[in-house]
Amino acid sequence: MFAKKKIFVVSLLQMDVFFLNSDILDKHFIWSGQSYFMHTASAVLGAALVAVLVSAGCLSAIFPYPSAPAPVQTSPVTSVPTTESPVSTVPVSQVALQLSDMPSGYILKDRSDISYQEMDQMSQNLGWKAGYSVTYYQLNQQEYEMTEINQVIDLYPLASMNDVFNIGENAVTSQDNGTTQIYQLPCPNMGQQTYAYRETDSQNPLSETTYSIIFINKDVYEQLTMTGTTTDFETLKGLAQTAADKIQ
Fold first, then answer.
1. Which residues touch 92 (CB under 8 Å, ≥6 apart)?
2. Which CATH superfamily includes the segment(s) 92-245?
3. Angle (nearest 5°) at CA 122 between 85 and 179
């Protein structure tokens, strides 16, 4: 059908050069071309499919990225709350004001424990347990001035503390009889209850002024008093706060 002649053919895959007769071309060249184009089409189709999968994110579903490790769960550390003692845990002598607590110029006059025999019957009935007293003074001989600060500390059962405070306050206010005048003063709370006052003698303008603060804190009853020719209520309030802070 086709004239026999030699045809020059170049293989697209191997770039080999060879000659074929036309009858061989009829049988083989067409088959080789089909095979080549089939392989080529398959390769192109595969590349296109990969591109589609990548753009659609499908490869990440087929070959997922390694998942990050889950964070380690740690239990929070809970601190155990400390329970504060309802009563004082230090000796009364350590609750007393020290010389280092006093303003400059003060001198220790006396300090001592209080004995049971010194207490009145009412205090003993209320369960008085222990006590301490300390006194400091400041002297200015050139100006004939002297100021004295006294602190009294008493320990009672917790059940008696309100009664002890009320009795102490009533003992102060009952002194207001016209001659001795009692004026209650504002004062920060030093514990569960606090009462501060100034005492003067209305009939004697030259009499010394006295400031006092009584308070209860836990099982401790305290009274701080400043009296003399030169007095300062602000100083007494600061000392009372220092004394209250010593109760632990």
1. 113, 130, 131, 132, 153, 155, 220
2. PknH-like extracellular domain (3.40.1000.70)
3. 110
pTM of the model: 0.66
- CB–CB of 195/214 below 8 Å? yes
Q: Are 96 and 111 in contact (CB under 8 A)?
A: yes
Query: How close are the terminal C-alpha atoms of the chain, in Å?
Result: 125
CA distances from 27 to 18, 135, 210 (A): 16, 133, 136
Cβ atoms 88, 155 nearer than 8 A: yes
Instruction: Report CA Rg, the chain.
Output: 52
- Return the top range by mean pLDDT from 1-10, 84-93, 237-246: 237-246
Short-list 224, 228, 203, CA closest to 213: 224
Q: Give me the residue spans of the domains in the chain.
A: 6-62, 92-245
Q: Tokens standing for 117? A: 């025999």
- How many CA atoms within 13 Å lie on the side-chain side of 204? 9
Say if residue 181's pLDDT is above 60.
yes
Question: How far apart are the C-alpha atoms of 247 and 191, rounded to whole Å?
Answer: 10
The H-assigned helical ranges of 100-219 are 121-125, 161-173
pLDDT in tens, 109-153: 999 999 999 999 999 999 999 999 999 999 987 878 899 999 999
